Amino acid sequence: MKLTLRLDPNRLRHWHLRLAERLARRPDTQVSVAWHTAGEPRPSAVEALFALERLIYRLPPGDENGARAQDFARYTAAHDADRVLDFTAAAGPAGTNVWRVMFDGVVGEAAVLGALIQSRTPVVSVVDPTGAVIASGHPGSEFGGILTLAYRDVLARAATLIVAALDGVHPKLDRPHQPGQPGTADVTRFGAKSLARAAARKLYGLCYNAPHWRVGWRFVEGADVVDLRAHPPTGWRDLPDDRSRFYADPFPFEHDGRTFVFVEDFGHAAGYGVISVVEFGAEGPLGAPRPVLDIGTHLSYPFVFARDGAVFMVPETGATNTVDLYRAVSFPDRWEKEATLLSGIQASDATLFEHAGRWWMLACVRDQGGAFSDALHVWSAPDFRGPWQPHRRNPVLVDIASARPAGRVVQRNGALIRPFQDCREGYGVALGLARITRLDDEAFEQKVETILRSGPLWPGRRLHTLNRAGRLECIDGSGTARRF
């Protein structure tokens, strides 16, 4: 394929250069660059804010940095491109196959900056010459209050969507958007708020261990949360911690007539999580969680399940760039690595389940940068040990509001119900329930049916995970832990 990027020399960013390099590495792809001046230079107030944030947060230069036309010298101009990716809103010659990359329905980075300054992220679309959407998604960021980092995350995921469109994957998201243009006053206000937030976080960090999560639990009498689509009227009880550590990602599990809860156990002094377990009796937890799996790097989301007379766990091991399977050799205290299911991948919250005679795995993947929570990938296998094959349409969904898994997939009245995280307002702020309406080799589709938030029955600012085993149902969310 002969692929031309049409760029404005007055609005070049380093992300354009990284995109050209990434596309040039595709098999049988020849990349060239064409120039078209279509707008004013980048706003000086934005450039000043980028520079200020890099100084305050000690950030290395990144995709927000300006690039020069000579940086693209290796991508010589071509006049017979099979496809043109237009980033300038220029009118393409009649009959050419011009695709445009749009942010909230507008070509150019101004809409990206306008959305981020309004504390949201834009809808990103790749459209064909008729205006039809080829691929679209709603990227996210774990750093909504820092323009530099949020900008990098959105543009990284825009590159993901561009590659998906060229690969014929075509993930699509039907979501309204509201384009905005950043004015100097808007940038100034955002910068002032960003500085205030940075100072507040620094002060909070001096007084409190942060982040700090907590686990809630209850014994189900009647309907559970999946059926209620609401918090139970009795509320939740907290799993106590000693403030020097927090517990998160609860996975209750029944074994030989006993009930256990596996959790991420994060020691603030150690700076990483291990997997711990606590048994529950008729009145609640029997003691405090005790460590059962520690590999020296961060572990979380202990997805536990039983199969073939044994108990297995797939914890999140993003730091190793693998998805690993562990087997209990002496339940619940001793675990050994059984297999590596996926490698060379930074996957979050791998969730396994059976459907239509096969095993399926859902996880969010961080693809050459970008957020950890907005790109959902699917794999399938004849057996949970593998071999696992990626879905031909990965990423099947790019959406910060509904991509990241938040617990086991469950069945209700013949339907598959999938808990997910809604991270539009920040990581783990809300919990959603979606019905999987299609899952096969050609497509993954879901319908969002419920969004749950913290409130009087679950105080705090976040709601993150939902799981049940037998009568025991667990969630988690934000907590506080004073340093003194």
Give keywords.
alpha+beta; 29 strands; Rossmann fold; 484 residues; seven-stranded mixed beta sheet; five-stranded antiparallel beta sheet; 17% helix; 6 helices
Can you walk me through this structure?
The protein has 484 residues and is of the alpha+beta class. The protein has two domains: 2-204, Rossmann fold (3-Layer(aba) Sandwich); 209-478, Glycosyl hydrolase domain, family 43 (Tachylectin-2, Chain A, 5 Propeller), CATH 2.115.10.20. Helices cover 17% and strands 38% of the residues. The strands form six sheets. Strands 1, 2, 3, 4, 5, 6 and 7 form a seven-stranded mixed β-sheet that branches. A hairpin with a 3-residue loop joins strand 17 and strand 18. The longest helix is centred in the middle third of the chain and has 24 residues, at 184-207. The protein starts with a strand and ends in a 6-residue tail after the last strand. The model has no long low-confidence stretch (mean pLDDT 92).
How many alpha or pi helices? 6
Q: Which residues sit in consecutive blocks of at least 5 with pLDDT less than 50? A: none
Q: How many domain modules? A: 2
Radius of gyration: 24 Å
User: Briefly, what CATH class of the largest domain?
Assistant: Mainly Beta
Q: Provide the structure class.
A: alpha+beta
Second CATH tier, the architecture of the largest domain: 5 Propeller
Q: By CATH's scheme, which homologous superfamily of the largest domain applies?
A: Glycosyl hydrolase domain, family 43
> What characteristic shape results from the CA principal axes?
globular
Roughly what fraction of the amino acids lie in strands? 35-45%
Note the main sheet.
7 strands, mixed
CATH topology call of the largest domain: Tachylectin-2, Chain A
Q: What's the overall average pLDDT, rounded?
A: 92
- Tell how many strands the DSSP assignment holds: 29
Distance between the termini: 62 Å
Helix content: 10-25%
